[in-house]
Design a protein that fits this description.
The chain is 43% helix and 19% strand. The chain is α/β, with parallel strands linked by helices. The protein has two domains: 131 residues, ATPase, nucleotide binding domain (Nucleotidyltransferase, domain 5, 2-Layer Sandwich); 171 residues, ATPase, nucleotide binding domain (Nucleotidyltransferase, domain 5). The strands form two sheets. It has a five-stranded mixed beta sheet with strand order 3-2-1-4-5, sandwiched between helices. Helix 5 crosses helix 7. The longest helix has 32 residues. The chain is globular, with a radius of gyration of 20 Å. The structure holds 5'-O-[(R)-(carboxyoxy)(hydroxy)phosphoryl]adenosine and zinc ion. The site of 5'-O-[(R)-(carboxyoxy)(hydroxy)phosphoryl]adenosine (KG4) has 18 residues, from helix 4 and helix 5.
Length: 334
């Protein structure tokens, strides 16, 4: 019955979660609004905000769980990948708690944790399963054989899916992060109104930089003829852009499912919060009689519950770390 405190601080969300025997008791997330006016995450500001947020966030997560500090069996934290200053705040805090309570540490790979978010709630996929992990920094198709045996079988060659959303949104004059706004506007728009070219890549890898460029050239041409073009067509533009990104993602995901013969399919990461993608993914799986797994919204974007659940499985496996563990900006899968 391990009781685990987990901390996530890899980018611009400070989050803490308590989990007992694989059940999430709390999941507190503090967003950092400070980056909005810069159009992207400013690493130094993110580290400072983590330092301000970490104590109250952990405090609320502990209180909400009803667990006392002395009841904790281990502390899990995001070790990599991420912004090094941000990771250091979470890792040092986790190490301090582990030292003071004399309990072990569990070091967690952020991308593995996104995949494991699918094991937080029932119905859970059985192994092996595939996961399309789509976030602001990554776009991966992962083959998960077990909690500790995961392999990336496809990934982006340039921009991540979240970047494709955010950079397209920026071209439309929307504030950062634009992904959720594109999702909102797309609900009122026609996804077939504008057609953008999709990359032709034969294997399971993705590319999104060409899409960004074709949207830029298209908008430049239209705005020249009508300066109000974007305002007049915002919903249709968002719907068409979203439709293209979803099409690029799901065509590759379908190919991966057919090639591997695996019919348990999950999605994860911030972009998996996209309502159009969730619907299209479910439809694709229903059509092919595949099992679709979609995490709750709060477990899609960065959160500590996914760190806690990954920590739980590592705990069961006896994969502990000590105080010599450090954060890394980049890390391969272990
Ligand atoms: O996983 P995440 O919270 O952080 C990273 O690890 O990157 O993902 C953030 C990304 C951003 O690019 C954001 O625009 C995108 O997820 N995102 C969305 C939606 N919600 C978040 N993109 C499209 N539609 C959404 N509803
Ligand atoms: Zn993430």
């Amino acid at each position: 019955m391990p009781t685990i405190l987990a901390i996530e601080s890899s980018c611009d969300e400070t989050s803490a979660s308590v989990c007992r025997d694989g059940k999430i008791l709390s999941n507190i997330i503090a967003n950092q609004k400070v980056h909005e006016k810069y159009g992207g995450v400013v690493p130094e500001l993110a580290s400072r905000a983590h330092m301000q947020n970490i104590v109250p966030v952990v405090d609320v997560a502990m209180k909400q769980s009803g667990v006392e500090l002395k009841e904790l069996d281990a502390v899990a934290f995001t070790q990599a990948p991420g912004l090094i200053g941000s990771l250091l705040v979470g890792s040092q805090f986790a190490k301090s708690i582990a030292l003071s309570l004399n309990i072990p540490l569990l070091t967690i790979h952020h991308m593995q944790a996104h995949v494991m978010a699918n094991l937080i709630k029932d119905p859970k996929p059985s192994f092996p399963f595939l996961c399309l992990t789509i976030s602001g920094g990554h776009t991966q198709i992962v083959l998960a054989n077990s909690p500790s045996d995961m392999k990336v079988i496809g990934e982006t060659l340039d921009d991540a899916a979240g970047e494709a959303f955010d950079k397209s949104a920026k071209l439309l004059g929307l504030p950062y992060p634009g992904g959720p706004l594109v999702d909102q506007y797309a609900k009122q728009g026609d996804p077939k109104k504008f057609v953008f070219a999709e990359p032709q890549i034969a294997d399971l890898n993705f590319s999104f930089s060409g899409l960004k460029t074709s949207i830029l050239y298209f908008l430049q041409k239209q705005v020249k003829a009508d300066p109000d073009f974007i305002q007049k067509n915002l919903a249709d533009l968002c719907a068409s852009i979203q439709h293209t990104i979803i099409s690029i993602l799901l065509k590759k995901y379908k190919k991966a499912a057919l090639e591997t013969g695996i019919n348990n399919l999950c999605i994860a990461g911030g972009v998996s919060a996209n309502s159009g993608l969730r619907k299209a993914f479910q439809t694709m799986c229903d059509h092919n009689k595949w099992n679709a797994y979609i995490p709750d919204f709060e477990y899609c974007t960065d959160n500590a519950a996914m760190i806690a659940i990954t920590g739980y499985y590592k705990y069961l496996d006896g994969q502990f770390d000590d105080l010599s563990a450090t954060a890394h900006a980049r890390a391969e899968w272990k």
